[in-house]
Description:
This protein is an all-beta fold. It has one helix spanning about 430-435; strands at about 5-10, 40-45, 55-60, 60-65, 65-70, 80-90, 100-105, 110-120, 130-135, 140-145, 150-155, 160-165, 175-180, 190-195, 200-210, 215-220, 225-230, 235-245, 245-250, 270, 275-280, 285-295, 295-305, 315-320, 340-345, 350-355, 360-365, 370-375, 385-395, 415-425, 440-445, 450, 455-460, 465-470, 475-480, 480-485, 490-495, 500-505. The longest helix has 9 residues, at about 430-435.
Amino acid sequence: MKSILLTILSSVSCALVALAEDASATAAPKPIAASTDLLSFMRLEGMNNLGEAAVEKKDRAVEVKGALVTPFPLGSSQSQASAQVRLYIPKRDGTPYHGSACLGFYGKNRNLRLFAFVCFNLPGMAPGQCEVGFLARASKQIPLAFEAWHTMKLETADGLARMKIWADGTAEPDWMIDASVESSLEDIDGAGVRTCGQPVLFESFSASGTQYKEAILTVGSEGEGIVGKLRNDGSLRDLKVRYADGWQTVEFRQDQFRGPGFGRSIRLERDPCETISFSGKNDDVRYRLAYAIADRQLQVTATVINSGKKPFAPERLPLVLGIDSFMDSYPRWNSLCFPTLIRREPSHLWGYMMTPHGRIFGIASPDPVGSYTCKYLRQMYAHHIYTISLDLLQKPPVPGHHPTYAPLAPSKQRTWTVNLIPVETLDAVKSKLAASARAPMLDLYRYSLEPGQPAEMSVFSFSPVTAIVVTPAGTEVPCPVGKKEGNLHQATFPDTAEYGDYRVRI
């Protein structure tokens, strides 16, 4: 039997709004506990942790191969934090593989945040020398004693991280290496140790710090069915939405994938105005995010202004949503929103995320969005997606149903509105998102037909609808659409005798 395939295209208009603020007070600093029992630490696994850690007690010390992190939280955010541990630098074994030990801080999702290291076995290293420093930031070679115990100390405060290491029986030195970091490493909630290349003996681990809580802005209210807590950089700390049977928390990332935002390179700050908005600048381009609640949905309005003399033509312009989709542990993954469907049309975007428990969280924009990106841990086709980004601009090549790439001309600005919407059932997805995207949404009873079998169509739209079917031969045939009730319209296209693709334009 031959089949006929039908494809969907549609068009739309746009809207944007904003909202007022409700800021909470800054909490008083609070001390954090310390720990010395490395055997009770959590053993980490994954790409950055070199396989699951092996831990073995040896006298007073613990031999570690891999990564361990404290079982207690350091706190949801830090203005100051410190950690130290004693470690044994072994005899250099002459193998071509390096050996090193790290002391560092981990984020909410147990991701590597800040690591101080000592590398004691590196090809080409001078006798008696070790390399110390911060992973991917700064380092230098210094003389250290092999086959001896040392204390390594790491501290961060006021946007500066610093570290030092010294042998037992020697005086504690000044800080050896420093590096700039964010003013508050606000997603730290654990400290730990890690090794690479060969096992290392550790003992006497401790960590402490001062909790830091920035003023949080509130968007929405319980009466509106959506309550969001925003940081001072415009990203969401958390979001609660109300469904018919109760409230659901939509988890957001607390690490480098947090959002909404324009990526880590664009730092946003609160605007001094009545609406909840945040702005930042990079070269001659200004970025702005504004938040509002309308029709029981959270509206995120992104604006980009080109104040330069040349067109702004990035390879891609991301709007990182920051919704946590990283399904790595049970039962936590049951409440996470996983990207299930995202569809770009020439004029708008729609799609939804869904939890294993069946909660549906819709995404719609009445503006042309270039593409989208899934931020995977390693590779595609897995449930290890940190979050998704909507690429407001995306250079070709892209599929034919994506909008045309249009650089932003000098002295011009462009705005995109992205709506985040709770949806009760799968049957309600298209109807709900059609209203939010201000675009007609086509639904077919069957998407493949026998030759001559009528194509039965439903269209969700609050505006009058016209439909044209393009036959496999390229002929455009008008298809009358009649309104049934509410925003539901229906049509039937009977002329499907010809084999091939029929494209439906609404």
